[in-house]
Write a structure and sequence with these properties.
By secondary structure, the protein is α+β, with helices and mostly antiparallel strands. The protein has 4 helices and 14 strands. It has one domain (2-217). The termini are far apart.
Length: 219
Amino acid sequence: MKRKLGILGSIGIIGAILWFLFLFFKESDLQVNLALKKDNNTYLFSILGSKATEAMIDNNQTPTILKTTSVIELDNELYVGLSGLENLVSLISGHYKIYKKEKKLYNGYITKDDESNFFTQKIMTEENGKIGDFDYKNVIQLKNGDSFFDIKWISIPNMVAEENCRITSIWVDSGIPGEKSTILRDIVVVKIKDIISFYGNNVKLENDKEDEILYLIEN
């Protein structure tokens, strides 16, 4: 009987630890909207791109605003996941277009400049020293004039951060049909301050957790 109680107690402790980790990582992984504050105006980010956003505004329609950018706080620093990375970089680097549309709580919309060439990505295969085995190296390159900021990591067989990024773990939906369960998954994240430093501007960050909006403030 004591052995059974001990097993049950251990299961209870393990369950409590897993629940704590679930809450911790769920709170750390925050899907947010993006917005720009500039010249005392606020512009919400539209994921549709410049042409589609402009067409919707001309037709007096509201552009699509979705929480597609993963912002994670690690060691008191804000990191961005690969989801929404290009959109965030477009705001930091100044490769965006603004569309005025006065609303009650904001002044219009902002989109990535579809014609700008500031963000490229590719996958390379490299031999890893074993016959027939290869590492799959992912490279995202940010451009600022003649300067480049490389983000590199290996995804297969294991995730390994190589340059200007780190690997962290978050709880995500398992994706199994008919089941409400979560699994711990490794993801690649990049420190937002490093991107701001690369472009050498004075953008400041304001992470509004209540409204789930990451504001970029241009000075």
